[in-house]
Amino acid sequence: MKTFQTREERGISVHVLPTQMFKKSSIVVTLTTDLQEETAAPTALLPYVLMRGSEQYSTPEKLQMALDDLYGAALSGTIDKKGERHVVDFTMQVPNEKYLSTDEPLFEKALGILSDVIMKPLTENGAFLAENVKAEIDQHKKRINAVLDDKMSYANLRCLQELTKGEPYSIPRLGREEELAKIDGKTLYDRYQQLLKTAPIHIYVIGDVDPEQVYQHMFETFNMEREPVTEFRPVQILHEARTERQVVDRLDVNQGKLNIGMWTNVEMPSDDYPALVVFNGIFGSYPHSKLFVNVREKHSLAYYATSRIDPLKGVLYVMSGVEVSHFEKALTIIKEQLDAMRRGEINDEEFSFTISSLVNDYRTAGDSATGAADMHLNGLIAGRVRTREEMIEAFQKVTVDDVVRIAKGVVLDTVYMLRDKGGEAHA
């Protein structure tokens, strides 16, 4: 696949990926800001309020009818957390008229709907409509509380919060429920205007399109007054070793959760990043990985056992579903797998399967237009953009010695246990 072609004006970057792989055109508009306690909740609320209605499409029903008229175009608004950055995201997908028996300019019409939603919201006296804000605050409380209903997600959230306590990374993607009481139509509209004026805006267009036409459409459409883009606060990636901490939460659960937070001390722009990804593949992200084979299959201690990395923060975390009575044994075996990798106990099958799996993952990553945009934005936020071809080449150059070096740098920090309310004080 070709790489993105980029043009920038007034803090707005337009990235175009011309390709005939898709019969739809995708437009992704992102506004990126620092993740902060005082702004997390209103920022997270914004895309949902904006999707409530605009000047031209005053209700969600009218908006959906307009999308249906464009051969079933789809528009969504959401909030993402990327390391210590908060990203407001709008994605429009519309059929490309080149593949239909119509001369209707579907791309231009879809862009008109998208820009109306983002730039011309329903307001009254310099504020968002009170009823729309109230309705979305009520819905947002449900979104926040829904995390507790999914115990796997809840345990992961709590583990990472404890690991990064006192750092912006610990702030939830949706913000905190208690902050919602401070929001009204005026305060939310002020936050909205601040983002439009100062947040870096990255617009992705993927499809069978002409880049020059896309640049013209985008810069004409998003022609707004902009102030100098705010500088982001640096992200703390490197962490010194400290005494291992154990945190226990008790809830009404039938299955315990054992999660472990670690520091990799490797940041995404580093030349060591591909080796970190390979390390994680061998350690816990695949069915052939050490955690799955030893914790789940060999010893039957876990319903699931996997590991993931967040390269935008240098975090590695293990997630497992374990009976409370097996917590200590499972923890011991998980630690043994990390120690084995530090000693270089990596067999040829583990290594070769991981490399081939990663190569396949990255080759298929381009099968999704939004996935390609997301990967590019991650690179921009981290400070180094790599193409999937560059990552594949890098994986194929990683050696076992590289993986061992990464393993020796991993610092186990926080052990989090989610267990039932009854039983002994300690598992």
Automatic annotation (TrEMBL):
<dbReference type="InterPro" id="IPR011249">
    <property type="entry name" value="Metalloenz_LuxS/M16"/>
</dbReference>
<protein>
    <submittedName>
        <fullName>Pitrilysin family protein</fullName>
    </submittedName>
</protein>
<dbReference type="InterPro" id="IPR007863">
    <property type="entry name" value="Peptidase_M16_C"/>
</dbReference>
<dbReference type="InterPro" id="IPR050361">
    <property type="entry name" value="MPP/UQCRC_Complex"/>
</dbReference>
<dbReference type="Pfam" id="PF05193">
    <property type="entry name" value="Peptidase_M16_C"/>
</dbReference>
<feature type="domain" description="Peptidase M16 C-terminal">
    <location>
        <begin position="184"/>
        <end position="355"/>
    </location>
</feature>
